[in-house]
Amino acid sequence: MDESYDVIVLGTGLKESVLSGLMSVNGKKVLHLDQNKYYGGESASLTPLKDVYTYFTKEMPGGDDSMGRGRDWNVDLIPKFLMATGKLVNILINSGVTRYLEFKSVEGSYVFKDGKVHKVPATETEALTSSLLSLGEKNSFRGFLKYIAEFNPEDLKDEVDPETTTAQELYDKFGLSKSTVDFTGHALGLYRDDSYLAQPCGKTIRRIKLYSESLARYGKSPYLYPMYGLGELPQGFARLSAIYGGTYMLDKPIDEITMEDGKVTGVKSGGEVAKCSMVIGDPKYFPDRVKKVGQVVRAICLLNHSVPNTSDAASCQIIIPQGQVNRKSDIYVLIVSHAHHVATKGHYIALVATTVETGEPEDELKPGLDLLGPIVEKFVSVSDMYEPNDDGKENQLFISSSYDATTHFETVLDDIQDIYLRATGEAIDFSKVQHDLEANKDSQ
Fold it and tell me: Where does it sit, as one GO cellular component term (predicted)?
């Protein structure tokens, strides 16, 4: 390990793994270290089932085979879905990492309103039949979706300016009610709270377009999920990095990040020092350089039945908008099952997550937990959320933000793109990626 690298990456979470792969593709000499013995960090998948009980320090019921073979379970610590035409899928395709992975579409997208679970309408046809909309509002919402689909910022034909018109003003233009705005912004636009309503509507238009285009790709929902769980994603990018010369080391203690004149010079591990000019890493490796910005509470629940009111979906997402339960932030429910090879047949894994707002975090999950029906086992965690104290440009330490409560990857990719831009001064460029990765490997 006593040699020099361009970049040292600390942690094998998805963010760090994607950045490691992209830096390697960009011609950088990369060393990737993790103090854990496994890939994935916070975004790891645990298997067999007994490892989940061990992780959460619970006793696994002995002699009970009702949950099937333990090795058939792959339980994500932070499950999230991919938007079918979203940023992460684009990175996977353009980097060639898709050759290592298999995806399956998610069966449903739902939203909670007035005490009930409803399918999210995202097309003009669905808008006309949706139970979410009153008869008088169906045509208004249909017109809104048509407007979004056809919107062209280069050809503005009315008074809507994506840079100055607010999201609320856009909704008002179509006469959408507060309840319709509620599910549109949170279930289609995937906003976590209502602060976006006072901001320019351009981002909202792009988000709803992304949802609709992703839905059009597969039909049932806009989401995808990898077979065998999210743990496959960091490993796919680890393979990409290795093909381009990256070096990976697990189970390595991170003793010190060495600095000189205010800039990083290397990483010390077990008496050895690897020199470098840049470090990228998970916030847990930089306790003195991050600030706590909140907490996320998550409950991973094992079920032996499908979730009620989801048409027996083998996988789906349910969003509970903040306004429906008198909160400041949304509650997210994600369900996967044997259909994605993450549980034994007849079993389901449900995640309920939200941003902590009170001194009783688990109680805040109740609206989501109540939707699940009987729960076989529940694992609850409360995680601190951190952000870096600065942009890292001066000291060349680029720190990722903690994973939020959302059950999709769009905010994760926002952070990846931002770190890459700050670290390199350039946007992510896939033209440098050689699609025939095996040929590249053979030539080295």
Answer: cytosol
